[in-house]
Amino acid sequence: MIKIESLTVQFGGVRPLDALEGEFTAPICGLIGPNGAGKTTLLNVLSGFVTPVKGSVALNDIALRGLSPTRRVAAGLRRTFQQELVVDELTARENIQAIADHISASRQDARDEIARALGFVELTGRADVLGRQLNLYERRMIEIAKTLIGRPKAILLDEPGAGLNESETDRLRRLLMQIPERFGAQLVLIDHDADLIASVCIETMVLDFGKLLAFGPTRSVLDDPVVRRAYLGTM
Ligand SMILES: Nc1ncnc2c1ncn2[C@@H]1O[C@H](COP(=O)(O)OP(=O)(O)O)[C@@H](O)[C@H]1O
Ligand SMILES: [Mg+2]
Fold this sequence. Notes:
Number of strands: 10
Bound molecules: adenosine-5'-diphosphate, magnesium ion
Strand content: 25-35%
Order of helices and strands: EEEHEEHEHHHEHEHEEHH
CATH class of the domain at 1-76 and 192-235: Alpha Beta
Number of helices: 9
Oligomer: single chain
Distance between the termini: 28 Å
Helix content: 25-40%
CATH architecture of the domain at 1-76 and 192-235: 3-Layer(aba) Sandwich
Strand order of the largest sheet: 6-7-8-3-9-10
């Protein structure tokens, strides 16, 4: 469970988040809104890269304020970035290993967790391929595999579907739906693909210029005329 209370972020004259309130309780939650709405900023606050001027966030009732990004990882928080961070010179396995070295409880745990994560994203057969030889979809899968290491409690994904074709999006959808049950982690998903959001997210938060536009069961949120107006032409 991720709780957000009167959260305000200020960058000079810009307020990417303005008195935001809400609680993600469903196993898979959507976070949507037009470009510049503040979605990535919210992930940055949750993961500890941006300090709010006001308000607080909590993961499963643990207050995150004052914890460094590393401490938040230890608390079970994981995220991906809009720009993926796969290292070209490392193999698929080594990219995941680099994370496991930091957070797995033991070497044996690391080996088991890496094998499980690679298997889950269906890249076992590509484990020894260098990052630079992986295609966009495979690189996205490596990024997701990295979040599955070390018993995550919540995983925040920043546009994992961007640039994927239809069949890749279908594969992504199938995997995302299994994460809460298979890995015991809550998922928060940012994406511009309303069909993907509608098919995997039980509840969805809509941001617009840093403010909460709508929040609730995904279908009713996506059908909300106020939401549709904010998205005119993009969904
Ligand atoms: N580090 C920063 N410094 C100044 N402005 C920023 C910074 N990060 C984001 N912003 C601004 O905050 C707003 C929200 O950005 P962002 O959270 O990236 O939106 P989204 O992910 O919804 O597209 C935008 O107006 C953006 O230009
Ligand atoms: Mg963004």
